[in-house]
């Protein structure tokens, strides 16, 4: 851990167990570090005043105090010093409390030496990289995080602060607001930037393949497994694993994921031995996980493991003052991609954008500008080139930022703001139930005439002014349109609660989710 011409870095260990102290000290000395040991909280404070340290490791229970007190002392007096805590095995509450107080990381007792080495290496990289961070931004990062609004300034500051920790981060925000980009920026600002960043869409993996995809598998573990394969955890080794749309995980996978996060060890499918993994977990969702926990669809213990630190990404309509800068940046990027001169918006076109609410956020803005750029002639995009709705659509409840995570845009919302949740019961898949007393309004089924109908209606296969369908008609498309309308009505009537909507429609939860995916219902 030292380079030529440099003094070894010094580590302070605080624990009242002599045997554990000796083990930790020998391990760190073999890593090329100098080590000081303290048996009490008072002695630890004395050493911190006398010497400079690159890292501090402390037990949570000390003869004259609590390890949390030392964490707070270090955070106040030595903010650049990483401190990790040693907690009793399975003590999730202690680990979360330590991370909230400012700890860099935690280790469970009995201490696994491979995890100890990984934590120490990560902490010392943070110490070496404690200078102001310059984000090595991709094009997407530049677009989503650009802006001079107060909301974006707070967000950028919090991203840098969160990058200096190993604590799990939960990112909330609407679809298209840039949750994955924020997660990638946290990774790029951290000491793990030179290691992989792996983003996983939890809603896009079939349930039967989840364990193999996350943890990997051995040859012969199942039919078709003709060779060993690494999973997402191994692919992100030393780096960051983003669990996007984490609310879509089934309960069976939540149990296995919780164990992997707690123990930082995984077992490949078909394997016998566990292997240590050094991965920072970031999760993202636009769903209300508190409601999911209350409904038994998400485990409370996994919720608290993931939601140690929370970050709310502001919607575009909440930072309209950034719109001009975003437009210029997107148009410049389009010009670079097409190798043409940059285009600009007319005053009328820009006014149209400012009057729009952007339910799809920055992603929708990019789509609008890319389409307008392709349709425009010359270097100016006029209002006639802007294919936009006449009025801002109402934002669906399911796509809104969770009410419990609401706050000032870019606000860092701590776990103290999360209401107390009951333990998540082990529920089976919601089964089909009789329709609720409140039925959906009856559909006005069109009748198919033998002839007639306007040319326009015939071209679209839509009902004519008389309410009758004219040919040519694509029956599958017409039935899909009807099914999409029915599901949409059920979701609206149940406030976008898919479990309740499934009961209302006489379907299982899984059947409804499958049909929504097939019909592209967000």
Q: For the CA atoms, what is the radius of gyration? A: 27 Å
Mean pLDDT: 79
Q: Give a quick account of the main beta sheet: strands, pairing sense, barrel closure.
A: 6 strands, mixed
The strand order across the widest sheet is: 9-10-13-8-14-17
In helices, the fraction of residues equals 40-55%
Query: How far is it from the N-terminal to the C-terminal residue, by CA?
Result: 49 Å
Overview of the molecule:
- The protein has 522 residues and is of the alpha/beta class.
- 40% of the residues lie in helices and 12% in strands.
- It contains 20 helices and 17 strands.
- The strands form five sheets. A six-stranded mixed β-sheet has the order 9-10-13-8-14-17.
- Helix 4 links the parallel strand 6 and strand 7.
- The longest helix has 19 residues.
- The two termini are 49 Å apart.
TL;DR?
This protein is α/β, with parallel strands linked by helices and 522 residues long.
In terms of topology, how is this protein built?
Elements: E1 10-14, H1 18-30, E2 34-38, H2 41-50, E3 55-59, E4 61-62, E5 65-66, H3 67-77, E6 83-88, H4 92-101, E7 105-109, H5 113-128, H6 139-144, H7 150-163, E8 169-172, H8 179-189, E9 197-201, H9 210-215, H10 232-235, E10 240-244, H11 251-263, E11 265-266, E12 275-276, E13 280-285, H12 289-294, H13 300-306, E14 309-312, H14 323-338, E15 344-345, H15 347-354, H16 361-375, E16 380-381, E17 412-413, H17 455-460, H18 475-493, H19 498-505, H20 509-518
Parallel strand pairs: 1-2, 1-3, 3-6, 6-7, 8-13, 8-14, 9-10, 10-13, 15-16
Antiparallel strand pairs: 4-5, 11-12, 14-17
């Amino acid at each position: 851990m030292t380079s030529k011409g440099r003094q070894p870095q010094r580590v302070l260990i605080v624990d009242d167990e002599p045997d554990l102290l000796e083990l930790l000290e020998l391990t760190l000395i073999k890593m090329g570090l100098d080590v000081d040991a303290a048996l009490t909280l008072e002695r630890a404070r004395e050493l911190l005043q006398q010497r400079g340290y690159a890292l501090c490791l402390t037990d949570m229970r000390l003869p004259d105090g609590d390890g949390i007190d030392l964490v707070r002392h270090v955070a106040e007096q030595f903010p650049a010093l990483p401190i990790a805590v040693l907690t009793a095995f399975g003590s999730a509450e202690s680990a979360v409390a330590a991370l909230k107080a400012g700890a860099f990381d935690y280790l469970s007792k009995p201490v696994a030496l491979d995890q100890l080495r990984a934590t120490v290496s990560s902490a010392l990289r943070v110490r070496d990289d404690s200078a102001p961070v310059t984000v090595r931004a991709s094009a997407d990062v530049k677009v989503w995080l650009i802006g001079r609004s107060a909301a974006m300034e707070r967000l950028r500051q919090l991203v840098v602060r969160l990058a200096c920790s190993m604590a799990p981060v939960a990112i909330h925000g609407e679809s298209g607001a840039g949750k994955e980009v924020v997660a990638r920026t946290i990774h790029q600002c951290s000491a793990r930037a030179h290691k992989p960043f792996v983003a996983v869409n939890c809603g896009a993996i079939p349930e039967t393949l989840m364990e193999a995809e996350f943890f990997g598998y051995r040859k012969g573990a199942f039919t078709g497994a003709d060779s060993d394969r690494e999973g997402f955890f191994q692919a992100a080794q030393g780096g960051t694993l983003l669990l996007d749309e984490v609310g879509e995980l089934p309960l069976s996978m939540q149990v296995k994921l919780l164990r992997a996060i707690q123990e930082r060890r995984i077992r490949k499918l078909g394997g016998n031995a566990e292997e240590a993994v050094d991965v920072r977990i970031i999760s993202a969702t636009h769903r209300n996980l508190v409601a999911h926990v209350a409904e038994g669809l998400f485990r409370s213990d996994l919720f608290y493991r993931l939601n140690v630190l929370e970050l709310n990404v502001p919607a575009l309509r909440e930072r309209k003052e950034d719109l001009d800068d975003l437009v210029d940046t997107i148009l410049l990027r389009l010009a670079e991609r097409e190798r043409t001169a940059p285009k600009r918006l007319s005053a009328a076109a820009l006014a149209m954008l400012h009057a729009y609410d952007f339910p799809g956020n920055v992603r929708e803005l990019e789509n609008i500008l890319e389409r307008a750029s392709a349709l425009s002639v010359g270097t100016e995009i006029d209002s006639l080139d802007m294919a936009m709705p006449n009025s801002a659509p109402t934002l669906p409840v399911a796509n809104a930022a969770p009410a419990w995570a609401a706050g000032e845009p870019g606000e860092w919302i701590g776990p103290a703001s999360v209401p107390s949740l009951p333990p998540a019961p082990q529920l089976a898949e919601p089964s089909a139930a009789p329709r609720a007393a409140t039925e959906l309004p009856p559909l006005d089924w069109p009748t198919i005439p033998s002839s007639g109908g306007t040319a326009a209606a015939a071209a679209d296969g839509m009902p004519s002014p008389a309410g009758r369908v004219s040919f040519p008609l694509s029956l599958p498309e017409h039935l899909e349109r009807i099914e999409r309308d029915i599901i949409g009505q059920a979701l609206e009537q149940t406030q976008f609660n898919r479990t309740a909507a499934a009961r209302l429609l006489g379907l299982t939860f899984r059947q409804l989710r499958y049909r929504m995916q097939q019909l592209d219902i967000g």
